[in-house]
Amino acid sequence: MNNHEEPRVIEITDGVLLPTHGERRIIDSWRLTLSIAILGLLAMIFLVKDPYSQIFRVVIKGAPLTFGVTLGAIFGSVFLGLFTGIGQIAHVRLLQLISGVYVELIRGIPLLVQLIFIYFALGKFFQLDGIPAAIIALSICYGAYQGEIFRAGIEAIPKGQMEAALALGLTRGQAMRYIILPQTLRIVIPAIGNEFIAMLKDSSLVSVIALRDILRRGREHVSRTFLSLETYALVALIYLVFTLVLSKLVAMLEDRMKRHEQ
Predict the structure, then answer these.
(1) Residue 254 C-alpha from the chain's centroid
(2) CA–CA separation, 98 and 88 (whole Å)
(3) pLDDT tens-digit map of 222-238
(4) What secondary structure letter does DSSP report for 22?
(5) Which of 31, 99, 167, 253 is a good FRET partner for 9, with 20 to 30 A between their CA atoms?
(6) Domains of the chain
(7) To 10 degrees, the CA torsion angle through 106, 110, 113, 118?
(8) Contact indicator for 214, 235 with CB cutoff of 8 Å
């Protein structure tokens, strides 16, 4: 075999997966979509300018809140999802019931309803501000879905590994921590990453509880200027760029995990 063999060229691909060893990609759907989104955004702001440059300056101020709520919900949902997944396969019947009821209950209620309930209903008793309420609602909602993902990931690990760990003197908790969960994380990263992307998009729902995120600032600008088409087109492009960048970060993390496994 020739060690100096030219890399294979893949002209067009789909998704955001990184090229494997020996492959060179000219273009893929992710790069093409991101290029179109960024060029469209820049053209609006710097070429057309009026009114897009003004709209951009207004709505982009909501980006820190959008990122903050999303980041907080990512940590919260992973924490809930991990313990829910473990609870569903636990040998304690009560934990199984609690985890199962939580998953079925939360997945049966729309996120918007959960958000409104936590902020307006529970807020009367716990004095919740908008940002904590948004993070809690997103964490609870996505924690249920991630619980199912973690459960499936744990069950994908051969049972013989747990039995071998117990035979070597490890406790069930130690075996779960040092043997099962590290392998589970490599399995669930793609699915969990998709949940993060969906969470970023669903963070736009926090505008209904008066949090001034990107969408809320856009709605306020529309109410003042009546430029609905221009404003919402720009808001859509901003969200598109953010989600495309996040999808690439998830793909890079997945690729790194695969290389570490090899």
Answers:
(1) 14
(2) 8
(3) 999 999 999 999 999 99
(4) T
(5) 253
(6) 37-261 (1.10.3720.10)
(7) 30
(8) yes
